[in-house]
Amino acid sequence: MKQFAELIRTLDSTNKTTLKVEALVYYFKIATDKDKVWTIAILSHRRPPRPVNTTLMREWASEFSKIPMWLFEESYHIVGDLAETIALVIPPSEESSEKSLHQFLQEIIELKARSEEEKKEYLYENWFSLNYYERFVFTKLITGSFRIGVSQKLMTRALSKATEIDEDILAYKLMGNWDPATTTFTDLVLEENPEDYLSKPYPFYLAYAVKGEPQSLGDVKEWAAEHKWDGIRSQVIIRNGELFVWSRGEELVTDKYPEFEKFINLIPDGTVIDGEILPFPKNEIGTFKDLQTRIGRKNITKKLLVKTPVILKAYDILEWKGEDIREKAYQKRREILEQLFTEVASEEIPLHLSSTISFQTWEEAAKERERSREVKSEGLMLKRWDSPYLVGRKKGDWWKWKVDPLTIDAVLTYAMRGHGRRSNLFTDYTFGLWDNEKEELVTFAKAYSGLTDAEFRKVDAWIKKNTLERFGPVRSVTPHHVFEIAFEGIAESSRHKSGVATRFPRILRWRKDKKIEEANTLEDLKALIPK
Amino acid sequence: MKTPLLAFNQNGIYCEAADVYLDPWKPVKKAIISHGHADHSRWGHQQYITHHTNVPIIKHRLGDIVVAGKAWNETFTINGVKFSLHPAGHIIGSSQIRVEHKGEVWVFTGDYKTEEDGLAVPYEVVKCHTFITECTFGLPAFKWVPQQQVFHDINTWWQQNKEDGRTSILFGYSLGKAQRLLKHLDTSIGKIYTHGAVENMTEVIREIADLPPTQKITRDTKKEDIKGNIVIAPPSTHGSPWIKKMVPYVTASASGWMTFRGARRRRAIDKGFVLSDHCDWQGLLTSIKATGAEKVICTHGYTDIFSRFLAEQGYDARTEQTQYEEENAEQTSKEKD
């Protein structure tokens, strides 16, 4: 535990990715195999089931620290993280535990079956005999998700450096449902397995947004355009009679899309397709909301597969007949992809081609872009016909030219404290629009991004001075500030009080020039819903 | 109802009997000033009264003002009301203001801390009936460790950065925190460089206290000379072009707010040292108890939470609105904890 707590302390002492990786590499070199397996598990969000519910933990923490419950709760709202609050309010201890990380986790697993009295005693003992960081880590292991500014990707990179095993191979090895209590480090990480290489994806090529007008990109005839689909960017790999589906987060998500199993016998081995997973209910492209019903689920039921099937909208091909063809020109790759598509396409197989469109003028392109919402795309992608498939986000050959978001001017009505990096700062805002009589503000969206840190601080200070009522971490504020809210899509919704759901609402601008009377009405918002 | 000895009005904390204000936020005729931070000593009063160590500090900040310096415990009477200044331990020259009239005693703390920092004259308990206290860190989550430990950590950090070939940049408010840091840095590790704002204020403080030598970073300062040394700069310089000269560097902030992991991460600072010029939770409770006061008025900080807790402990506690900057974890340009 000492080593792990020290690792967390070191990670907490730097903001630089390279130093975080260094700290992790060092840890992976010195820790025992059992501890390493648990560390990998924790940093990839595999944790033992919560042995004590948080209500009890809060009660006990308040009791042990001899402060009233309401004061503990207030402190929790301000600190923003339960484990951190507990670690702070319990009287300090200089002691430190010799027990290892995996011993602690073993105890935590066993704790679940114990009586409430035993659980309380266990927490008491440990809270009072661990120093601040150990106590924080210990409590965090019990309360849940271990978000400490280290992504799974960063952890994998460090593990790769420490073991000299390829990062993508490791990413694959760490997929799936392995149990840290029974898996050994050798099995999980070290063992060579030719299968590992079968699944290996290519790094995705990502586009930058067009700044200003696309005329600056030169002759329109050098560019292929296609609609920009709003789904999950994915690579579908068929090798050796097996299917692998990778999402852009380099997460292996094969199990989530069983409909792609159909590709196996149709698409030849040694094929890697780049495309977008899109929801396809009722034989047409659905909304991102439909797709979310698929993303979140652990078990994909038959019912769900019928209700919200998915398709792959293919736009590029990276490997063909076992050969890496990323160096070939986009035009050439499209020919191969289109050839493949003509050979295999049928009603039954969930493979669609994302068509390319050629334009004679940029004005024509602009017109097509205006149509994006109709065809359920987010705008256009521009790809240079003679470009290779590059790695990562590179300027030059691929551009995204999204449609401008929809916007509306709304009034700040409620604010909530953020969590983690934003704890103790009111950063999560609720916005209202006027009802027909312009008498009442009706909540229509929540947004918590789009302002600069300096603006957030100003709004935060203002909120603290202009609070009307408090409801735990939430405050209602005097209606005073108008913000321009941008969002990508809009649909009717019976689940929202306003009757409207917006997709990805965020703050575009703080309209200091506007008075609340000048904010928009709910009717204005409804007028934006596509008919 | 009789007029209270001190009342909170639109200008500041007002003593009607003496026609004088304590730390007013609007320009007034006569102001008694607790300490030199901008929200307590504002511009535009006709007459200032403050402890004599604070005189050069506020003159530096406010320019040509009419100011009278007083000694600790020196009683001065205005319209029959007795006033005196007592050490608050917050920063150098900071006072609590004691007000006595017809047997009734009120004390206004300004800002204060109970720990001796080696620079400010240590906080002195002043008995009173009504205690007007700040409570910037009035939450049980705040517990300071002795500064000796914190400075050991800071010096170890500096030493390590130096070995790694990096410059250490330590953020602290120009008045108070900067000098406290200077005072306790281990100069055997390397040289101390300063930002202009810190240097100017430090020069003023040198008249009052003994501080290690510092070098102001100017246009002519060579990049190679700074490398591996430590730089003391105001928090507002973080992320500014000024700081680029120090590459490769590591940043740290020394503040009570560094208690929160989120506060450090949000500011994109590498390292947080928990070091405050205010009382922690226990420090506030202990001080209040020691004054023997029955009535407590909370002015700035987590006032609602803190006064509710005090009320539960049997105090007649309440909150008053002031315009002392609600110091919170988010201030970067004027951080002064």
TrEMBL record, chain A:
<dbReference type="GO" id="GO:0046872">
    <property type="term" value="F:metal ion binding"/>
</dbReference>
<dbReference type="GO" id="GO:0006281">
    <property type="term" value="P:DNA repair"/>
</dbReference>
<dbReference type="Pfam" id="PF01068">
    <property type="entry name" value="DNA_ligase_A_M"/>
</dbReference>
<keyword id="KW-0131">Cell cycle</keyword>
<keyword id="KW-0233">DNA recombination</keyword>
<dbReference type="InterPro" id="IPR012309">
    <property type="entry name" value="DNA_ligase_ATP-dep_C"/>
</dbReference>
<dbReference type="InterPro" id="IPR036599">
    <property type="entry name" value="DNA_ligase_N_sf"/>
</dbReference>
<dbReference type="InterPro" id="IPR026333">
    <property type="entry name" value="ATP_dep_DNA_lig_pp_1105_fam"/>
</dbReference>
<dbReference type="GO" id="GO:0003910">
    <property type="term" value="F:DNA ligase (ATP) activity"/>
</dbReference>
<keyword id="KW-0234">DNA repair</keyword>
<dbReference type="GO" id="GO:0005524">
    <property type="term" value="F:ATP binding"/>
</dbReference>
<keyword id="KW-0479">Metal-binding</keyword>
<dbReference type="InterPro" id="IPR012310">
    <property type="entry name" value="DNA_ligase_ATP-dep_cent"/>
</dbReference>
<feature type="domain" description="ATP-dependent DNA ligase family profile">
    <location>
        <begin position="303"/>
        <end position="435"/>
    </location>
</feature>
<dbReference type="InterPro" id="IPR012340">
    <property type="entry name" value="NA-bd_OB-fold"/>
</dbReference>
<dbReference type="Pfam" id="PF04675">
    <property type="entry name" value="DNA_ligase_A_N"/>
</dbReference>
<keyword id="KW-0132">Cell division</keyword>
<keyword id="KW-0436">Ligase</keyword>
<dbReference type="GO" id="GO:0006310">
    <property type="term" value="P:DNA recombination"/>
</dbReference>
<keyword id="KW-0067">ATP-binding</keyword>
<dbReference type="Pfam" id="PF04679">
    <property type="entry name" value="DNA_ligase_A_C"/>
</dbReference>
<dbReference type="GO" id="GO:0006260">
    <property type="term" value="P:DNA replication"/>
</dbReference>
From TrEMBL, chain B:
<dbReference type="GO" id="GO:0004521">
    <property type="term" value="F:RNA endonuclease activity"/>
</dbReference>
<dbReference type="InterPro" id="IPR036866">
    <property type="entry name" value="RibonucZ/Hydroxyglut_hydro"/>
</dbReference>
<dbReference type="InterPro" id="IPR050698">
    <property type="entry name" value="MBL"/>
</dbReference>
<dbReference type="InterPro" id="IPR026360">
    <property type="entry name" value="Xnuc_lig_assoc"/>
</dbReference>
<protein>
    <submittedName>
        <fullName>Putative mRNA 3-end processing factor</fullName>
    </submittedName>
</protein>
